[in-house]
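Input structure tokens:
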């Protein structure tokens, strides 16, 4: 048995980090006339960070797709551009 194998054989299994999950999303107007989507995360390494995504004016379809993807909901009607 090699030295590295002996060390790993005696080591308890490492606990997995909890996966970050989206708790909520806040939408607000941005300086460029578009929208900022700010994510509130729970668990995992993202729980202390708040990812923000900016959508310019005219990117309504991209914003709708973003909301559908992350919130798991369908946007009724057609998004305005």
């Amino acid at each position: 048995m090699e030295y590295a194998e002996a060390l790993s054989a005696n080591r308890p299994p490492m606990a997995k980090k909890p996966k970050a999950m989206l708790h909520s999303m806040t939408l607000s107007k941005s300086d460029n006339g578009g929208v900022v989507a700010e994510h509130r995360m729970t668990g995992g390494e993202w729980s202390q960070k708040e990812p923000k995504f900016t959508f310019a004016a005219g990117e309504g379809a991209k914003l709708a797709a973003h909301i559908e993807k992350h919130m798991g909901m369908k946007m009724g009607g057609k998004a305005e551009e």
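The first strand starts at residue 21 and ends at 29. The radius of gyration is 21 Å.
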